[in-house]
Design a protein that fits this description.
CATH superfamily of the domain at 296-448 and 467-557 in chain B: Cytochrome c oxidase-like, subunit I domain
Radius of gyration of chain B: 23 Å
Largest sheet of chain A: none
CATH architecture of the domain at 296-448 and 467-557 in chain B: Up-down Bundle
Radius of gyration of chain A: 21 Å
Number of strands of chain A: 0
Strand content of chain A: under 5%
CATH topology of the domain at 296-448 and 467-557 in chain B: Cytochrome C Oxidase, Chain A
GO biological process, one term (chain B): respiratory electron transport chain
Number of strands of chain B: 4
CATH class of the domain at 296-448 and 467-557 in chain B: Mainly Alpha
GO cellular component, one term (chain B): membrane
Protein name (chain B): Nitric-oxide reductase
GO molecular function (chain B): cytochrome-c oxidase activity; heme binding
Order of helices and strands of chain A: HHH
Distance between the termini of chain B: 29 Å
Oligomer: heterodimer
Order of helices and strands of chain B: HHHEEEEHHHHHHHHHHHHHHH
Largest sheet of chain B: 2 strands, antiparallel
Number of helices of chain B: 18
InterPro entries (chain B): Cyt_c_oxase-like_su1_dom, Cyt_c_oxase-like_su1_sf, Cyt_C_Oxase_1
Largest interface: A-B, 38 and 46 residues
Number of helices of chain A: 3
Helix content of chain A: over 70%
Strand order of the largest sheet of chain B: 1-2
Chain lengths: 81, 572
């Protein structure tokens, strides 16, 4: 469930970024000869950006979990003293 | 608190050099601000383009000096032994002075059209924005970085014993040298040259410096708050990973208008939209680490500047960078005053403040003055913070007017219309510049004389006002109450809401109502709400964060800082 939620948030965020990045003003007139190449740019770009966002959410969650856990440094100091 | 390794003392000279170059840079900033108001000031003696090149280059040099000082101070602690080849570090110091002086004089040759061409290379100065230094200075800088990388890597333990902070700093100093090479050759084709120029400017500053920044912030938090180093190591690892995951392709936001293939406009926009992610990550990292164990602030100025570094990174690099990173907004903002609004916060805020933070942490230890008078440091912090936020405010709003008058109305720069329209904001520059200069002067005086001034006797300071806050619990109600994660999240969200308004303001220039009918109401309204809102929220958040830390109850003095590192942590 957690993964689905993270993935959904990542996809939504990247759809917003995708729409803001779409070259609206080009009106397709200046595109290079290969439309297939552009499709690859769009698909690969979107997939990569979803991955980066997904990784960000996961690592941020673990960061909070780390800090919620008792500090092993404190245990070490206690042992040394 | 006392110094553990004698070679750590070598960092002191770099911090002092940092302050000298910082003051010089601020001086040039004041000249530039004055010339914005009256372009005839010093015209023909120090032309605007020369003063600007000096301002930029000095900014890079003093920040590097601060970074080197910080790295040299922490490297023996991370290695648990003295630094190797101290004579090389002394050589590096003198080389840095030679580079600074040489660069200072050769940049002025641009005023007379002298580049020093020899064998197809500009040896004295090359006039490429941000990389104005000639080839001689560039090669010397490369040698300096090679020395730094050699000393740090030889000092560190074997690679199998490295933790994430070793990796961050090790990769950082190596890449500092490697990426600089892209700026060391001249290409006649300007579009190709621009690729390499941005390799240095973006990958070097936003990629490599960022890695060093994340590692140093993490380690300073370990030293100051005795945070678990494994937790910090995790934050450093993912901070660095996210910087590279988003920034390697995100660099393409510099390729939009330099004659490169058009798909970069899509990829550059999409990936640089992700570049704030590591900065949000770093924001939470510092919040959590500063709040985990409820330790009081022992060295308040050092933490003030670390917080300033992380928050201004969020605002300047993250939010203002985000607002202009899309081709749809950048088409309006590039080459206007909107950009230096972002750049001042991102460069001075993120990297400059970290250098000053490291100096405030290290200098009292090296001068044996752990209970130094912290008031000047705090005052200096608030003055430079207010000053640089004010400068960003003036640049951003002045830039919005500039976009409208210059790009929408099409009035010419040299006709005098654009300059007149921006008049109010041009006046704000010297005003906030002077505020900043006072702060910089106070900081420099404080750090130069720290541990050498006559201290007030303890009897005259019964509440510990002068000598740190550990002995002075403040009220923990109102603004001093503990800052919860939920509240910090609300503050962060408010910053991004104003950032969203700013982005919409820049996007609105694309609307036919603005672009064709020349109605400036919407972009002016959104910029008028967004920029002041963002900067005021930033100021209030920093105040709130620091008030909550200063209100912490006094705790017993911690053990020597580096003890927390024993035994040497290994990657988990």
């Amino acid at each position: 469930m957690q993964r689905i939620t993270d993935l959904t948030i990542s996809v939504l965020a990247c759809v917003a970024a995708f729409l803001l990045s779409w070259p609206f003003w080009r009106d397709f007139e200046y595109w290079p000869e290969s439309h297939a190449a552009w499709l690859v740019y769009f698909c690969v770009g979107f997939a990569l950006s979803v991955y980066v966002f997904y990784v960000f959410i996961g690592s941020l969650r673990i960061l909070f979990l780390h800090d919620a856990a008792p500090s092993p440094a404190g245990d070490d100091q206690a042992k040394r003293s | 608190m006392q110094i553990e390794y004698q070679t750590q003392r070598l960092s002191l000279r770099f911090f002092m050099l940092m302050l000298v170059l910082f003051l010089l840079q601020v001086g040039y900033g004041l000249v530039l601000a004055t010339q914005h108001v009256d372009p005839s000031v010093q015209a023909g003696t120090i032309n605007f383009n020369i003063a600007r090149a000096e301002h930029l280059n000095l900014g890079i040099l003093w920040i590097l000096s601060g970074f080197i000082g910080a790295i040299l101070f922490v490297a023996p602690l991370l290695a648990r032994r003295e630094m190797v080849a101290p004579w090389l570090i002394k050589l590096l110091f003198y080389a840095l002075i030679v580079i600074a002086v040489w660069n200072f004089f050769t940049l002025r040759l641009a005023q007379y059209g002298i580049a020093g061409w020899w064998h197809g290379q500009p040896w004295l100065q090359q006039g490429l924005e941000y990389l104005e230094a000639g080839r001689i200075a560039g090669v010397l800088v490369l040698v300096g970085f090679a020395i730094l990388a050699y000393v740090v890597l030889r000092t560190f333990p074997p690679v199998r014993q490295w933790n994430e902070i070793h990796w961050g700093l090790g990769l950082g100093v190596t890449a500092l040298m490697a990426v600089w090479v892209f700026g060391l050759f001249y290409v006649a084709r300007l579009d190709l040259q621009e690729y390499f120029r941005w390799f240095v400017v973006h990958y070097w500053v936003e990629g490599v410096w960022e890695v060093i920044h994340i590692s140093l912030v993490g380690f300073l938090l370990v030293l100051m708050f005795k945070v678990d180093i494994k937790s910090v190591g995790f934050a450093v690892f993912w901070g660095v990973a996210l910087v590279w995951l988003s920034g390697l392709i995100g660099n393409a936001h510099h390729y939009f208008w330099i004659g490169t293939p058009e798909f970069w406009q899509f990829w550059g926009s999409l990936f640089s939209a992700l570049e704030p992610l590591p900065l949000v990550f770093c924001f939470w990292h510092i919040y959590l680490d500063a709040h985990t164990n409820q330790r009081p602030l022992e060295n308040a100025p050092a933490f003030y500047f670390i917080l300033g570094s992380v928050v201004l990174e969020q605002i300047g690099a993250g939010i203002l960078g985000f607002s202009m990173t899309f081709a749809l907004t950048n088409v309006w903002s590039h080459g206007t005053w909107v950009t230096p609004g972002h750049a001042h916060l991102a460069l001075f805020g993120t990297f400059g403040m970290l250098g000053i933070a490291a100096a405030y942490y290290a200098v009292p230890i090296m001068r044996k003055a752990p209970d130094y008078d912290q008031r000047l440091g705090k005052l200096g912090f608030w003055l430079v913070l207010t000053g640089v936020l004010g400068l960003a405010f003036a640049f951003a709003l002045g830039g919005t007017v500039q976009i409208y008058v210059y790009r929408i109305l099409g009035l010419g720069w040299f006709g005098g219309d654009v300059s007149r329209a921006m008049g109010l904001f041009k006046l704000l520059l010297p005003m906030f510049g002077i505020t900043f200069t006072f702060g910089a002067g106070i900081l420099a005086y404080d750090l130069f004389t720290l541990g050498r001034r006559v201290r007030a006797p303890a009897a005259a300071d019964p509440r510990g006002v002068l000598h740190g806050d550990a002995a002075l619990p403040r009220s923990n109600t109102g603004w001093g109450r503990p800052l919860s994660g939920f509240e910090a999240g609300i503050w962060l969200m408010m910053m991004w809401v104003f950032g969203g308004i700013i982005t919409l303001g820049l996007l609105s220039f694309n609307l036919p109502r603005v672009r064709v009918l020349a109605d400036p109401t919407l972009p002016y309204l959104l910029a008028g709400v967004g920029y002041p809102g963002l900067l005021l929220v930033t100021l209030a958040f920093v105040w709130r964060f620091l008030a909550s830390l200063e209100a912490r109850a006094s705790l017993p003095s911690p053990t020597v800082a580096a003890n927390v590192l024993l035994p040497l942590p290994v990657r988990s």
